[in-house]
Amino acid sequence: MMDEPIVLTVTQLNTYLRSRFEEDEALANVFVAGEISNFTDHYRSGHFYFSLKDEKCVVRAVMFAQYARRVRFHPEDGMQVIVRGHVGVYEVSGQYQLYAEDMQPNGIGALNLAFEQLKAKLAREGLFAPERKRPIPKFPRCIGVVTSPTGAAVHDILTILGRRFPLAEVVFCPVKVQGDGAAEEIAGALARMNRLGRADVIIVGRGGGSLEDLWPFNEEVVGRAVAASKIPVISAVGHETDFTICDFAADLRAPTPSAAAELAVPDRRELLGAVVGLRARLDAAASGTVEHAREWLSALAGSRMFRDPAESVAIRRISIDGKVESLNASMARRCGDLRQALAACAGKLSALSPLAVLSRGYAVLYGESGEAVSGAAEVREREQVLVRMRDGDLRCTVNRKEMRKHKERKAGADQHEDQ
Amino acid sequence: MRISKNTTFEEAARRLEEIVDAMEKGSEPLEKSLQLYEEGSALAAFCYKKLSDAEQKIRQITELEKKEGGTDGED
């Protein structure tokens, strides 16, 4: 029997080895620390395939989808991790490997790592960029509140909104804020608020809790929903020291839900003070305007025109009288000048008048044609002529014409007349 | 600005501020100033009343969504 060798098939061998591995309780639940290499995230199946190595050795590992889904961070090559699982044999290849059921980053918490990873990713995409931040409206007409209906946060928020700015309406969207499905509910609530389009600003958040409790606000779906919101978002998650992805993506981070409510609305008391102040300024400005007008009026009334109208009229009259006088004087002067000029002209005229000559004893001779005659040559013998004297006319007949010789040379015209 | 049912606190407060600024500058004629004063007084009273009398209205989003859905259906 001893020398009869047992020949096994490969399958038998691998099956045997697999059962030996499975029997070994030491291998059923192991924790292995190492560095991830050759990491493959199988998208279709959701399984992780990778190796774990240290300075000397390497072991293959697989993490099936149902476990891989629970890993909050993204495993990467070079990352130091602690994997919990069991060791088994994959019969097909005869390879033993680590069947991982949980994975934690070594040295840093998984959630911390996941947070840092997602933060870096969304920051690279520009979701947190300052230029994306929208201003929070000063006087919102409607405030959207997305939080748990049972926590202290909703009570704090509503109390403060009601006290500070009751003018604004509140639209409340209750959501789960921790545990499975909370992130999706929060993201969904933001989308609903945007679809409704009623709120001018949204407060999203919850009260304090453990990192696990706050985790939904660190999920990618919430970060993206906050960034995608067309309505400005104020994020208030946990306490002042808690920073979440939701905070980074929001337009404004409030340290607490109460602070978010205070940042969302102005304070009624301050506004009342401002209105009273404006009212006082209005009154002051109005009385200032009236006072100004009154001063102007009294300055006007105080002017001489109004103080003593009679005097003013008298002054004007004097001035007018003066003008009339000077006008009269200048008219008189002008008339005098004209009169003198006229007299001079008349004098000259009378000096030239033939009548003046007559007055000195001369006579004017008119021919039969009625024209004045200036020489004997113009008169025929037997012509009836008129002699006009100073005091009367003489009708005469020319008896005889005797031309004077010494005058003939001078008056050529007469000679021609003669011939 | 006429105060109506739809006038918001913000609109009224902004207009009131405008009026006060204009009045303080004193560039408006007397007649106009008196008009502005009347308007400003009414706005101040409105703002004061709004702030003093307001009571917060809180509504559930589902209630509003139903209403929105209802009007959409009617259209």
Main beta sheet of chain B: none
Helix amount of chain A, in percent? 40-55%
Number of helices of chain B: 3
Low-pLDDT regions of chain A: 407-419
H and E string of chain A: HHEEEHEEHEHEHEHHEHEHHHHHEEEEH
CATH architecture label of the largest domain in chain A: 3-Layer(aba) Sandwich
Number of strands of chain B: 1
CATH superfamily of the largest domain in chain A: Hypothetical protein af1403, domain 2
Radius of gyration of chain B: 19 Å
Helix-strand makeup class of chain B: mainly alpha
Question: C-alpha Rg of chain A, in Å?
Answer: 65 Å
Largest sheet of chain A: 5 strands, mixed, barrel
Proportion of helical residues of chain B: over 70%
Q: How much strand content do the residues of chain A show? A: 15-25%
- Total DSSP helices of chain A: 15
Describe the structure.
The complex is a heterodimer of chains A (419) and B (75). Chain A has helices spanning 10-23, 25-28, 65-68, 110-124, 152-164, 182-196, 211-214, 220-228, 245-249, 257-264, 268-301, 304-307, 309-352, 354-359, 412-418, and strands at residues 30-41, 48-53, 58-63, 80-90, 95-105, 142-147, 169-174, 201-206, 233-237, 252-253, 364-366, 372-373, 384-388, 393-397. Chain A has 419 residues and is α/β, with parallel strands linked by helices. Chain A has four domains: 10-107, OB fold (Dihydrolipoamide Acetyltransferase, E2P) (Beta Barrel); 135-266, 3-Layer(aba) Sandwich (Rossmann fold); 269-309; 357-402, no CATH class. A five-stranded mixed β-barrel of chain A has the order 1-2-3-5-4. A five-stranded parallel β-sheet of chain A has the order 7-6-8-9-10, sandwiched between helices. In chain A, strands 12-11-13-14 form a four-stranded antiparallel β-sheet, with no helix packed on it. The longest helix of chain A has 44 residues, at 309-352. In chain B, 73% of the residues lie in helices and 4% in strands. Chain B contains three helices and one strand. The two termini of chain B are 34 Å apart. The mean pLDDT of chain B is 83. β7 of chain A pairs parallel with β1 (58-60) of chain B, so a sheet runs across the interface.
